[in-house]
UniProtKB/TrEMBL annotation:
The chain crosses the membrane at residues 12-37, 49-70, 109-128, 135-159, 171-192. It is a multi-pass membrane protein. One of its GO terms (cellular component) is plasma membrane. Its main location: membrane. SUPFAM superfamilies: Rhodanese/Cell cycle control phosphatase (SSF52821). Residues 222-313 form the Rhodanese domain. PANTHER family: ALKALINE PHOSPHATASE LIKE PROTEIN, UNDECAPRENYL PHOSPHATE TRANSPORTER A. The lineage of its organism: Bacteria, Pseudomonadati, Pseudomonadota, Betaproteobacteria, Burkholderiales. The keyword Cell membrane applies. Keywords: Cell membrane, Membrane, Transmembrane, Transmembrane helix. This is VTT domain-containing protein. Gene3D superfamilies: Rhodanese-like domain. InterPro entries: DedA_domain, Rhodanese-like_dom, Rhodanese-like_dom_sf, VTT_dom. It is found in: Cell membrane.
Amino acid sequence: MAWLVDLIREFGFGIVFLNVLIEQLGAPIPAYPVLVVTGALEGADAGRLVMLVGIAVLAALIADVVWYRAGQAYGGAVLGRICRISLSPDACIRQTESVYGRWGPKSLLIAKFVPGFASIASALAGTVGTPLATFIFFDTLGALIWVGSAVFLGSLFSSTVQDLLDVLTALGQWGILLLAVAFVVFLARKWWQRTRTLRSLKMPRISVQELAGLNAQGVYPTVIDVRDLSQYQRGRIPRAQSWRTLSKQSDLPHEPLMPQQQHPHGMVVYCDCPHEISAARVAKQLQRAGFTNVRPLVGGLHAWQAAGFEVEGKDLPEQGTEAVESHGPLIS
């Protein structure tokens, strides 16, 4: 274990740079503990602490700009890809869209403290057209807060961290094994949460071809869009209703959809997330409320667009329910 401590002392800045870069690119390799430990080891040298913060912030900014540019280039598709490699994919896009839609670039100030949020938020910033200068300003401040807090904690509790390192060093190979086991347990727990979530949301689904085929026959299931309202306004499946708007009309989001007889052709729920997780959650909620024949749309809006089907609402103003009301009542 002593060699590992020596390695951190000698190549700590390089290790921190790679660790932060890889984590911010989406890999489940926590960088915060490494920042704390490195901050503790460099605690007596203010100049090196400043260098440490600068290097870590630079690494985070590089990764975030990569996701920002990817969001600009590929739009919503890149959001789904990020969540597919995430160990916590359940509603990750939906939650990020909600926070970013409410707070805008300011949400980047705390993004790195929430696992998986930073990558999605950076890509979403590019997708929604946040100016690059604005993005870099808030993202840099957020990275400074995140890195600075870790380095500060490390330097503040440097003696405690050093004592812990001494214990691990005394344990030798057992110390390394202990760290490895802790990391494996962390990954296994995340994997189990992911697997359990996906299993709990298994249900019949409908493909975009099936939905388009029904529409071509004059059969129109009630379509529910569960994405953030700003995403809904930028483009949606024709005749889709916003779940967020419905949620504002009542304490129970499904109440405006009552009675069930209004939906003789069933209901289709869609999102833009991997495995239709957000859509399946809402579909399950509707089923518990007594609605039958509720199915998530496989692939969501991205699959609908990729198949070449019509998308409406791209030119609507982003003004809450006004965009919805301009196309008539929510419930037809």
